[in-house]
Amino acid sequence: MSVVPAPDVDASTVTTWIDFMHTNGVRHVLCLLTKEELGFYSTPLLDRYATKFGAANVTHVDVARSWQLSTLLQSLTRAVALHEKIVVHCSTGQSRTANVLALWLHRHNALGIAEAVNEVTEYALEARTTRKPRVADVVQMLMGEQPSASLPPPPTSARPLSSRVLSGRLATGAPDTVDICFIQMGGAIDRRTVVSQRFSEHTRNEIGDSCVREHLAASAFAVGHEFVSVCKREGADVTLDDRKKLLTALFQTSAPRIVVTHSLETLLETAQFVALKLPTLGKVVVFTGARLPAIENSSDAAFHVGFAAGACGQLRPGVYVAAHGRVIPATACLRNERSGLFEELKHST
Length: 349
Hints:
The protein has helices spanning 11-23, 35-38, 45-53, 69-81, 96-108, 113-126, 135-143, 163-172, 212-218, 240-252, 267-277, 301-312; strands at 26-31, 58-60, 85-89, 180-186, 191-196, 202-207, 225-233, 257-261, 284-288, 318-323, 326-329, 333-335, 342-344. The chain is of the alpha/beta class. The strands form four sheets. It has a six-stranded mixed beta sheet, sandwiched between helices. Strands 2-1-3 form a three-stranded parallel beta sheet, sandwiched between helices. A two-stranded antiparallel sheet has the order 5-6. The longest helix is centred in the middle third of the chain and has 14 residues, at 113-126.
């Protein structure tokens, strides 16, 4: 015979909570409790919330099961659009709620994830409460997969500096100083030939530092920007882990526009991977590359970098391929195996 433990939270306590929230103007509830945690209540908690606030204003996302990013964001967006208060409810508020708050700052205020995490932590200290958001956990929420331990550390440009500067930006609505981020993945664009003469002269190819920095310096590029190197690989050598690290870099930059330089050989595969994994990223991501290394006089690298950077400012949020004078949504793009050119899929009527 099994013994069923008594509920930890009785009905009168829940009534006190709900009355307090309603009296203080709360009109929406986002509940992050698991199925097991809901069992701690003597009466069905979600039903009690629905009775007081209305079923349409109560959202439940069980973080222990299939992740529902769009459902969570819709709940927060609806409350903000109506200028109404929302309570995010988990067990202690230190981790799950804290990560959701950081996630919201990242998405709604265009902050880098590390900046958003820092902002939540500092605000909690001022409010004399405890919040423990983590960059890796927020990234995992956005991705819906990938254990936190496998994530690389934030790039230097995304690490928080002064959170009080962030608070000032949130209050004034001033734009971020980083308007565009250039991310290196490798490919012919950054390929260079290395000559060795230790025993006998021989040459080998390797992927060097990103050529973008030199191109921007030469053109007196005046837009606020940053550089991130995810990997330096030839197209066939790009791995799933490299692509996941790219997702992390896309999350962590505060820039609303991003240019990714990549081998043309597998560029489309990576671009479509990003489009599939990040359908609601809310940023413009443009992939480009070059047929010839930037160090060669006849290279198409400078054109493609400039073309991609210019295209960023004219596009709606999404993932695109910019090459050969064309800009094509990644989900509607294919590569002509014969010519090597990227083409837009033709839909039959």
